[in-house]
Design a protein that fits this description.
CATH topology of the largest domain: TIM Barrel
Strand content: 15-25%
Distance between the termini: 18 Å
Number of strands: 16
Bound molecules: zinc ion
Shape: globular
Helix content: 25-40%
Structural class: alpha/beta
């Protein structure tokens, strides 16, 4: 099966296969071809170039992309898409003046989601999560990481991870699963935190590894959640089961989470709303991808990740949604890219790099996703006719996507 796309106004994010991420000043460069063609063979990109050099080939399907821009699908490396119900009441409570921490202290927050999840069957949880996955696919996401962390019981965590596995099997989108048993302490362990950590390490992890349900291990390292020492203990246990760390750090406070992530070769450290000069220094020259979640900053009215300082220091940066019921009930990567430009002063080129190739890196899939490269997955966004790719962040409330290609096929 061969698909030929012709007359592409501009084909974005052309990379050689040896580029797995871009950092610092390289982030301002977005390699493109104007007036381009692209060839897809089965599920892979097999050729592309300028229309002047269009080869004479027999395609099964030809798509005329006149006036339209094509880019690799968004790579959303941080989500909590699998959850039950919603937390719209807390949203209204916050409008009325309560803080995120006050709501959490009243039994709201993550524990509220955990209660709902444990009362919901696996079938119903799958049904609700599937709707969200379909929505983010239509919004241009072609690879997504999904975390557990609303079970906080052995059965609840396994239920979430089984739902993620079922989504992976049933949808043509790349999915990576992360075990986040250390998302919050359940209230029955409030006075015996060691016992919950023992449960994570000695009961949850062996079962998860046995069923091969997770790729990564995550911990919410923050005051009131997991300390640096607890984080280190849990990620070390995950590493023993072959799960690379991807951790929540520096959302509200800088307490040493980045340091423990870097020391344990975390694939990514995520949130980073609060960054000290030492935190930025620590990340230099490492294999750990910093990940910013601007929709979360927007929704909670908390600081944005200091992208300019980090890029100036030579760091790479990835962008993700953090789609979750409490702090970011949105999986829209187009909004993330726009918000990164508007609020974090990233250029459109930097934001698109952060949401494609660097997002793929933060999921460990940049050899197969995140750029227009021969041999990579044909997961593409075809825009409506637009004047230039600046429209993607500029027209921040508009849906500019005309069609989606996943695994080489038009997704409908
Ligand atoms: Zn998160």
């Amino acid at each position: 099966m061969t698909t030929l796309i012709t007359n592409i106004k501009e084909l974005l994010q052309i990379r050689n296969s040896d580029i797995t991420k871009v950092s610092g000043t390289e982030m301002a460069i977005l390699p493109t071809i104007k007036n381009a063609y692209l060839v897809i063979h089965n599920d892979l990109i097999s050729d592309f170039g300028s229309m002047e050099n269009l080869p004479n080939l027999k395609a099964d399907t030809t798509i005329d992309a006149c006036g339209k821009i094509i880019l690799p699908s968004w790579c959303d490396s941080h989500t909590h898409i699998v959850y039950a119900g919603n937390r719209e009441q807390e949203f209204v409570d916050r409008i009325n003046g309560l803080t995120y921490e006050e709501i959490a202290n009243r039994g709201g927050g993550i524990l509220n989601s955990a209660q709902k999840l444990n009362e919901t069957s696996e079938e119903e949880l799958y049904r609700q999560s599937e709707e969200r996955l379909k929505e983010v696919i239509q919004l241009g996401t072609g690879a997504v990481e999904i975390k557990s962390g609303y079970g906080l019981t052995v059965e609840g965590e396994l239920k979430m991870l089984r739902v993620i596995k079922k989504l992976t099997n049933n949808y043509p989108i790349a999915i990576k699963a992360t075990f986040l048993g250390a998302h919050a302490f359940p209230s029955q362990f409030k006075d015996n935190k060691k016992a919950y950590i023992d449960l994570i390490i000695n009961e949850m992890l062996p079962k998860i590894a046995n069923e091969n349900l997770a790729d990564f291990i995550d911990v919410f390292c923050e005051n009131g959640y997991f300390t640096v020492a607890q984080t280190e203990l849990i990620i070390a246990a995950g590493i023993r089961y072959g799960l690379q760390p991807k951790i929540h750090v520096n959302q509200f406070n800088s307490i040493g989470g980045i340091q423990v992530g870097v020391q344990n070769k975390a694939l990514s450290v995520d949130h980073l709303e609060v960054m000290t000069p030492e935190d930025i220094e620590e990340l230099k020259g490492t294999s750990t991808m910093p990940v910013a979640l601007p929709s979360c900053s927007y929704f909670l009215s908390i600081p944005y990740t200091p992208a300019r300082e980090m890029i100036k220091a030579g760091l790479p940066l990835a962008l993700a949604t953090d789609f979750n019921p409490g702090s970011t009930p949105s999986g829209n990567m187009n909004f993330v890219v726009a918000t990164a430009c508007i609020k974090m002063k990233m250029t459109p080129e930097e934001a698109i790099n952060a949401a494609t190739i660097n997002g793929a890196y933060a999921m460990g899939i940049s050899s197969t996703h995140g750029s227009i490269t021969i041999g990579k997955k044909a997961n593409l966004i075809i825009t409506k006719p637009i004047p230039s790719y600046y429209q993607i962040p500029y027209a921040f409330g508009s849906n500019l996507i005309e069609s989606i290609i996943l695994d080489g096929k038009l997704y409908q």
